[in-house]
Amino acid sequence: MAVSMSPCFVQTAAELSIKDIHSIASVNGPGSFFQETSLSKVGLHIHIAHDGTPCPSSTEYTSDLFEWSDTDENIDYDDYPEGASIPLVTDSDHLAITIVDKSGVHSLSIWYCHCPGALNRDMQLFQASLFPASFTRPKTAFTFSVLDDFLLDNLECGTSAMNYYSKIRRLTSSIFPLMVPDRYRELMRTARQWRQCKLYKWHGFAHKDDEPKAGDLTLFCPACPQLGINLDLSTGTTTQPDDTPSWLFTRTLVMDGNFKAEHLHPVNPSDEVPLMDGLAFMVGDERYKSNLSIAQDRVQKSDCNNHHAVNQANASRQKLEATGIGGCACARHGCFVPHSMVDFQKGERQMNMDYALSQALNYNTDGISCTITFYDINCQYNKFFKDRITSSMYLSIPFGMDIIPGIGLWHVHGHQDSCYVRYASNFIHGTGRIDGEIMETLWASLNIISPSARGMGTPHRKEVLDYQMNDCNFMKMICITKFLCRKFKEAARGAAESKLSFQNINETAHPDMVILWEAEEALAQANRLEDPAAMDIYEVRLEKGKSPTRKQQELHLLQAQNHPDHLVTGSLSRRGAATWLATGLTIEESQVSLSRDMKRLSRHPTDSQLLRVARLRDKLQTRITGFLEMAPTYLGFEVNADEPDSPVDRVHNSLDEDYSDLNDRDHNPDPEIHHTSILQPELTIIPLPSNLGMVRCKELGLTDLMKEETALHEGQANDALHAIRVHLGDKAIIFRNTVRSAKSQASSTMAWTQVRSVEKAVNLNARIYSKCRLQLAKLPDHDLLKKYLPLKKEHLKASAAVADPNAQGQRDATLAWFWCMDVQGDTSGNDWMTEFYRVNWLWTKALCDCWNEEVILVKHEMQWSINFFNHKAKQWLGHKDNAASTGLTGHACYAARQSQIYHQLAAHAADSFQKIIPVTQPEGPVG
């Protein structure tokens, strides 16, 4: 606003509020322009009492000045040109207080009240919505709005105090920002005090005389069961104990560490003053350090995979006071648990996480007898956890509480195979549908401010982290209604789909087997707490040797030929036929491999490539020639596969469509390579019984030879499937150990080269299997095609598939048939099909149970959330009544507003939940 000088300006300006602070400009003579100036230069005096009028008890304004007590200015104004365009805030004629606002830094003449009984100057500034930088002789003050703006910027954008104040200086003077007084340190100090004031006010400690205890300055999850807050075990949902699942009132926690929240050693630790040590999320410093001083640092040797978190106990960085933070959060809704966040000194050690978990297990867990904990290395961490608790005077867990260990679904795939069924949430009753990895998402908000907190003092850093975590929980609280509505819709849909899937598989199983499987499942769940290995019933249990290889089949046929009965009745001319047939199958595999290599050649291959192809063709042709020379011995006639009148079927056997071009670049063939005048042994039809045809074989009396070829093809199919499983397992290991750990372009290139090499092997064996299956289709008197199903591309598409049923991304999907068992077999001849049904029955039932649990849990969480909001509203209503009875009008109004906010949250939640509850009805676990 532009203001021209007039006799009445000072009088009218005195009526302005502090909230009206903004820059002004004055006209510098006729025909000139507006120039920025300070309010004090044009004679503005602000009286912060008596409704903006001068205090009748004050003397001349100049006699009311005092010595400055805040930071001295280090600005040399001689370095800058004179002129009104620079808003000087220090003027010897109008000594004033520096006010920092969102609009910039201002110089204002503040007149205080000097009446008898008047408040101190700092309190008068507070009443004027100004936060003084010091409490004795304030020289600088910050408006409440600028402090709120800074804290919000710090929360949402990670803006540091230095960057924020730099912005304020540029808003004040875009040309000479360095002339604006530096109040960065004052901003840091007042922001700390402002955070403390806000937390005390939000949690009702301005309305009561009680001192806050550990974790009192926080919000926790509204949807987790908390006795006396959102849960009353004597009424409500538990009036029918027979219908209440035992797992309903279970606390689910997730533990994790964050190594980006580092902290440097403080410069002056003796000068640090904590404002709310242990009152929020970070644990109290003294007791935590006392626990660390007596805790024994035992380096535990992992009997699972080489987990970094277990073996990095001696990790240390000399410049860091804390190498990170760790703690606990609600696993279902992602709310940090109050007073359960700790600093790491030498990496993520058990002594650190023990203290965090101990505090979390004791926070609002009255009436809760079971807790499920998810931790990256729980298979090792949980083994001796209770022993460590018992041996420490600073650690405790509620009496009689059972702790069921779990591992998040992302981390569990880095463990040994057995850890999946023992610790994955899919097989833990009472978890519903959670992945146990939600804390990884919570670190994202903390990582925004971690860089700016790295160099802060120790108490200041903890307060910043506390405030950030409290805001994270606040956002979870106000969004819980939308979150639960979405979860309920997903749960209703998932429960319906999984129920149908389970009914389909349950109806195909024999009733006696179902009874047996149900008993196995119940026993495993009952014993999992004492013996996690009891959950191994969910794994595929295969006996070696059930699937005969081609060599075993050939050996069996040769042994049968040497049997006395065969020597009497068999034809001597057919002796050795099994070996001859096996040679033919090997030649066909070589043809498949060479055909694939030919397709991968470019239009203009190099001489080296041409020479390699020529050698392979020559070698293959030699083997084919030798094979054909032996053909009359076993077929009874000479065979020339290249003659037009050859008895061999001239139709070339193409592979299944899914593998006709699997992962091959279909380049245009070079005429020089594929010319018909050039010998192409890869296209020669081998005179096996399957290629001769059933009619021709019967005319020649080759029925026994067809049976032998069928047996060899069965072994060939088993070999191909085994190779596929092995190579897919190798591929997963390469991804896990090589690709993900590659730190440079060179190492990444080498890793992906290994992956492509393994993919080639997988694709080759897939082609061999498909070729084998085509040949089996031409042979009579067997039902092996029911056992060996078609192989599809999608069976091999999952890049994280491993040589076990624990691959990522298969939480909701059944396993590919060749993973679930060695190969599918006939239940009358072996247990393959029985094992296949057993495992799939258990997994499908576990999936169905999880979805049904999710429906039940979400419905109860909806009611618990409403109860939580009503409980908070009732609390604030009590604060309002107490404040009104003592004459604290402002306190009463604030409490009434807070109560109304929680009433609105409760009403909104109840209305939203009522709209979607009729979608479906919850069901208990199947069986």
Please describe the topology of this protein.
Blueprint (H helix, E strand, L loop, with lengths): L8 H5 L10 E4 L6 E4 L7 E3 L49 E5 L2 E8 L9 H7 L2 E3 L7 E4 H14 L3 H12 L11 H19 L47 E9 L4 E2 L20 H10 L13 H4 L8 E3 L1 E7 L11 E3 L5 H12 L8 E5 L3 H4 L3 H6 L11 E5 L10 H7 L14 H16 L4 H21 L1 H29 L2 H17 L22 H12 L2 H6 L7 H23 L7 H29 L35 H4 L14 H4 L1 H7 L2 H37 L5 H33 L6 H4 L29 H4 L11 H54 L3 H28 L11
Parallel strand pairs: 3-5, 4-7, 8-13, 13-14
Antiparallel strand pairs: 1-2, 4-5, 6-7, 8-11, 9-10, 11-12
Task: Report on the architecture of this protein.
The chain is elongated. The protein is of the alpha/beta class and 927 residues long. Helix 14 runs parallel beside helix 28 (889-916) and helix 18 (577-599) crosses helix 23. Strands 3-5-4-7-6 form a five-stranded mixed sheet. The chain has a five-stranded mixed sheet with strand order 12-11-8-13-14, with helices on both faces. A two-stranded antiparallel ribbon has the order 1-2.
Please tag this protein with its features.
alpha/beta; 5-stranded mixed β-sheet; 28 helices; 7% strand; disordered N terminus
Strand order of the largest sheet: 3-5-4-7-6
Assembly state (oligomeric) = single chain
Helix content: 40-55%
* Helix count, DSSP H or I runs of 4 or more residues: 28
> Distance N terminus to C terminus?
76 Å
**Gross geometry:** elongated
Low-confidence stretches: 1-16, 60-72, 83-94, 236-241, 567-573, 650-671, 798-805, 820-830, 919-927
Q: What share of residues are in beta strands?
A: 5-15%
Sheet with the most strands?
5 strands, mixed
**Strand runs, count:** 14
Summed over residues and divided by their number, the pLDDT gives a mean of 79
Task: Tell me the Rg in angstroms.
Answer: 39 Å
Class from secondary-structure proportions: alpha/beta
